[in-house]
Design brief:
This protein is an alpha/beta fold. It is built from eight helices and eleven strands. 32% of the residues lie in helices and 21% in strands. The chain binds S-adenosylmethionine (SAM).
Length: 274
């Protein structure tokens, strides 16, 4: 059994305790800047937290056309990896709203980011997701607490990779509602096309063995562990069906594509509201 499988087999609350304990020695002694959480609290992935946030900001600018004055919505804001990067780019005219289903991440961001950057706000939205929590309301009925046409730029990094098809479909309809005409949604996915379906068989841990036709799961018990969508389904049923346009796709190296030819690990979709 892989380490990842063992981790997923633990009850949700145990996963956090396991992480806290594992990183305790580092967290007690290592130095961090004010926008970096203790390692044991980072439930959103591994690697250099601040460096990744800065690299993502560069991608938002270069691939999505993010401007310092933009009003930004970060869906699944986690524990502030993306927000921390954006604090170094958005100016006083710009602003940021993030929401997430994990209260501990939202509280950390409010305490450490909003306190220093009052134009950055974070909201706790208790919605169900079997990777992150056991309870909560259904995400596929959730109306985003924002006005129509409010945002210039919407971000979802490694969030649609943890949501089921009906949830993603509904979120894209809400994104269409809250984003202004001409606005850009920068969203990452695992996209299944001929090349990735062939390539992923060779990549340990990313072969998505559970096939549901238009999507595949990494784990059948923890469904939100990781999900990959068929390219046609994503384009037609999720994006075009919500009156959005897939402007560009930048395929990532998760499925064995050459790293030197890719922008990132996950696939990046640049989606425009017409
Ligand atoms: C892999 S983490 C990525 C976090 C952050 N976007 C980043 O890149 O650092 C996925 C995040 O999505 C959040 N999430 C899961 N389901 C969600 C939902 N229905 N609505 C909003 N956030 C959700 C999780 O709580 C978690 O913080």
């Amino acid at each position: 059994m892989s380490l990842r499988k063992i981790f997923y087999s633990l009850p949700v609350s145990w996963r956090y305790t396991a992480r806290r304990l594992y990183y305790l020695p580092v967290d007690l002694f290592a130095k961090r800047d004010a926008l970096t959480p203790p390692k044991g609290m980072i439930f959103t992935g591994s690697g250099d937290f601040r460096k990744q946030g800065r690299e993502m900001t560069e991608l938002f600018k270069r691939l999505g056309g993010l401007q310092p004055r933009h009003r930004v919505l970060d869906i699944g804001s986690g524990i502030g990896r993306i927000a921390a990067g954006l604090t170094e780019y958005l100016d006083a005219k710009g602003s940021y709203e993030g929401f997430d289903v994990m209260e501990r991440g939202v509280l950390w961001c409010q305490k450490n980011i909003t306190k220093r950057f009052p134009n950055f706000n974070f909201l706790y939205t208790p919605l169900k997701n079997d990777l992150y929590r056991n309870d909560g309301a259904a995400a596929e009925n959730f109306r985003f607490p924002y006005a129509d046409d409010e945002f210039d730029f919407v971000i979802l990094t490694s969030v649609f990779t943890h949501m089921m098809p009906e949830e993603v479909k509904h979120y894209l309809s809400e994104i269409e509602r809250v984003m202004r005409s001409g606005g850009i949604c920068f969203a990452t996915f695992f996209i299944l096309d001929e090349t990735s379906e062939r390539g992923m068989k060779e990549v340990k841990g990313f072969d998505f063995p559970y096939d549901y036709g238009h999507y595949r799961l990494m784990d059948d018990k923890v469904k939100a562990a990781n999900i990959a969508f068929k390219k046609e389904y994503l384009q037609e049923e999720l994006i075009a069906a919500n009156n959005l346009k897939l402007k560009n796709l930048h395929l990532g190296w998760w499925s064995g594509r050459g790293r030197d030819k890719c922008e990132s690990f996950q696939d990046i979709a640049i989606i425009k509201k017409l």
